[in-house]
Amino acid sequence: MRTIGTKALGLRAPIIKSGDDLKKIVVQSVLDAAEAKELEIKDRDILAITESILARDENNYCTIQEVKGDLQAKFSSDTIGVLFPITSRNRFAIILRAISLAFKKVIIQFSYPGDEVGNALIDPELVEDKIDNPYERVLTKAQFEEIFGEANHPFTGVDYLSYYQKLVEDSGAQCEIILANNPLELLKHTNSIIVATTHTRFTLKKRLLKNGAKKVLGLDEIMNSPLNNSGYNEKYGLLGSNKASEDTLKLFPINCEKFVKEVQADLLKETGKKVEVMIYGDGAFKDPVGKIWELADPVVSPGYTDGLEGTPNELKLKYLADNEFKGLKGNKLQEAIENKIQTKENKLKGKMETEGTTPRRITDLVGSLSDLVSGSGDKGTPFVYVQGYFDNYGSK
Length: 396
Hints:
Elements: E1 7-11, H1 22-35, E2 46-50, H2 51-58, E3 61-63, H3 64-74, E4 79-83, H4 89-102, E5 105-110, H5 124-130, E6 139-140, H6 141-148, H7 160-170, E7 174-179, E8 192-195, H8 201-210, E9 215-218, E10 242-245, E11 248-250, H9 256-271, E12 276-280, E13 303-304, H10 317-322, H11 330-342, H12 362-374, E14 383-387
Parallel strand pairs: 2-12, 4-5, 4-8, 5-7, 8-9
Antiparallel strand pairs: 1-14, 2-14, 3-11, 6-7, 10-11, 12-13
Helix pairs in contact: 1-9, 3-4, 4-7
């Protein structure tokens, strides 16, 4: 019996800069690992490549001045509302700087106790203790601080209310901060609004427009076309962007589908094996201690080859052992389960023997695995090679 099922290997790579031949580097990294006997390339292996490497190779950057120009072209008001921004120096602070340069007054509405991805302004238990109805209660920054004190992030220690206010004012704009969980509250202050959320943007835009907003854009509608030869992302705009420098944003990559297909074709040519290839960003998982949901990108994988489409079609081994084959043990139990797997239906959705399996897309699962393996620091493994993912208990 095979003793190892799925394994994920972080592949070390050179430091990649714009203008490098990324496709060649990716393929050669896999070939080098195989030549060193650290992996054996097989059909249906998965090669995952971090989105930041591809975006860097594409030189997909924009400056805050370019973001400012795009904002001023799309809004006619001097006052802008920013609805439910994520509290992140890396993800949103530089975007807020650009917004502050584009308008004379910026009104920021924070949700509380935390933002869309779980960054907490305050312990949720304190909110329940001190406010009767947090969905209806509207607070100024001063009122919030009088009730709860400074809004220090539990991990970074940054007081994001004060940090964002200072950032806006240092850029030359007036700043007003309110804390409210009803998105329509912002309409009492302005009818020009940027919806700063990632995963709830469509619903929020509809609600605001239905209730009298004059102009509403999501971050996905800013820098969604090039400005003076800048970087851009037609589908996601500023969503998925990261701080590259004090004045520059790295955007989400734009040529993902073309790139993964070309890497797959090159690996097939070099090895005779069809390896599935995907681009991945943030994983889709939640920290059980800090309650932060990792997925600040618009999707886990913005591009992947056809073999990664769909969701797993798996049986729950524990269910089979405890129910259908509860009278069997040892080799007989193993043989019965292997036979059950080999004869399973192509579509098991809704069957009792799948109860407890994970009904998530393959790209979300493998992308989350890859994000955990590669990390976000100094491991130097921007490529992750996954083997045995499509195998099962009956695979030899």
